[in-house]
Every structure is written in structure tokens, then in C-alpha cells.
Amino acid sequence: MLKSFDTQLEDCLSDLWRYAWSLTRDRDAADDLLQDCLERALRKRSLWLPVRPLKPWLTTMMLNLYRDDWRRNNRHPLVDLEKAGDIPAPISSAEDRLELQAIWSNVAKLPQEQRDALLLVVSAGLSYAEAAKVLNIPRGTLMSRISRARRKLKSEIDASGLKKIRSIK
Prior knowledge:
Layout: H1 5-11, H2 13-24, H3 27-43, H4 54-73, H5 94-109, H6 112-122, H7 128-135, H8 139-160
Helix pairs in contact: 2-3, 2-4, 3-4, 4-7, 6-7, 6-8, 7-8
């Protein structure tokens, strides 16, 4: 049995914020995007089907809000070097922070469809099936986009000489 709307909403807030940050790469913009998404979700609550999980519905809404805002403002989501302090990760050294910043810069260079697929799975925490539904593509297409994105990121990291980021435990 699926949880209630409110319970599911509360359960996915951290994943939604992380996904908003991965789209905007700015704390304030991520907060605004999350708030806009939650406001719209609450306003359109009657459109949600209670037999389905809430997170894919919300991530679709968030992605659409982000795209609408990007089109309206014609902004390009690149990492701003002056906002390196906004990277929400427990990074211990300046070298690690620069390394993570370089990786995000490479993520920003990915083709849009690969970046969308990768961020839905990695940042938003959706399953392949849920992410494919959000993007309205077959699961196999999503998996190949993620595979190409990961391959491209790996080759960029290997070519740049960046060390591998350690797993944070």
C-alpha cells in the first residue's frame, strides 16, 4: 500500500532539493525551484493518482518548471566559479572542491538528454523506470543515455588527470 501524499512528500524532500541543486547549481535557486515545485504540487494535488508513487510526478513537475524558467530567462546552467562555496558536499580540502567543481562543469557540458537522464537517476534518486517515465522515453533509451553520459564523464576525467573522488562514508 502506498503512503499518503503528505508522507510521500516529506520522504522525498531531500532528494527533490538535491535534484533542484543539480539543475541550478545554486543554493538559493534550488530553494526557489523546490518551493515553486511544492507550491504547484499542492495546488494540483487533485491531479496526482494515489496508486502511483509521488516522487516521479514531482520530479517531472520540477524539471518542467526548470525548463520553463530557463526558456523564459534564457539562462545556461553552467557552474559559476565564484559559487564554489555553494557545492553542498562534505568536501575537506580546496583540491577536492576544485575537483568536484570540474566534474560538475563536465556534467554541464553533456548533451541535454544525457544530463537529464543522469541527474534524474543520480541526483533525484529515481529508478530507471521512474526516470524513463519522467522523460517520456523507453527504459532502454534512458539506460543508453546514462551509459553514454557516464562514459563521456569518465573519458573527460581521465583526460584531465583528475583523481577519482573518494566515496564519502
